[in-house]
Design goal:
This protein has six helices and 15 strands. By secondary structure, the protein is an alpha/beta fold.
């Protein structure tokens, strides 16, 4: 049994993490941890990647986020998947302060005795955010090829906790429901309307923590090797 503290889409409101009193073994953040600068123009909300990176690094340093999180974690493991709003890497910044942190990739990360894999890529929106792509089949295939026990992505699978169905990944939904895999839990965010909810899809526990912080207990049975 593994107790995972799952957060997503905090958009700078990290203080809620510090108030979490329940015990956990791994903190998993599935993206959009940082606040954005942005600006409103006649054409809508606009993003400048250089300005966003500078703003997020300044916020992280000035607020002393790393030190506060380090004290709160007390040596516990951190795993993260960046979101489309994140222009700097959370895991790398935390490692610089001595936190045991890794970014989850399609190639897989081994932590807490199990394999985690995933990706940040999200369906194309307007071409200004991080990780926007038009075809996600390649990254889905790569993540499943890592044969993970736990899958972590920023965006949800289409039709699974992604109301109103505008931000999900069709290729991910097809893979979860139609392929043979060993994924016992899939953690994600991105779609705020279903944040704080979970459900089972077959034997896989799907959890959307957008704008929420959740303690999720996952049972990972020992693999029977051929």
């Amino acid at each position: 049994m593994l107790r995972v503290l799952h957060s997503s889409d905090l958009h700078g409101a990290y203080e809620a993490l510090l108030d979490m009193q329940e015990d956990f073994e791994v903190w998993l953040d599935t993206g959009d941890f940082f606040p954005n600068l942005g600006r409103v123009e006649a054409t809508g909300f606009r993003i400048d990647p250089i300005e966003e990176r500078r703003h997020q690094l300044h916020w992280f340093e000035q607020a002393g986020v790393a030190g506060q999180l380090c004290d709160w974690l007390q040596g516990r493991k951190v795993l993260s998947v960046p979101g489309n709003h994140d222009f700097v890497p959370l895991a790398a910044l935390l490692r610089q302060s001595g936190v045991d942190a890794d970014e989850i990739t399609t190639g897989g990360v081994h932590a807490a005795g199990i394999t985690w894999a995933g990706f940040r890529e999200v369906p194309w929106m307007q071409g200004e955010w991080q990780g926007e792509v038009r075809d996600l089949a390649t990254v889905v295939d790569a993540a499943f090829a890592a044969d993970p026990d736990i899958l972590a992505t920023h965006a949800p699978p289409t039709g699974i906790l992604d109301h109103p169905g505008l931000f999900g990944i069709p290729e991910l939904a097809t893979a979860l429901t139609g392929r043979k895999h060993n994924i016992k839990a899939h953690f994600f965010g991105h779609e705020h309307d279903d944040g704080g909810k979970w459900l089972h899809v077959g034997e896989t526990l799907c959890v959307n923590a957008a704008t929420a912080i959740m303690i999720v207990t996952v049972s990972i049975p020992e693999r029977v090797m051929p």
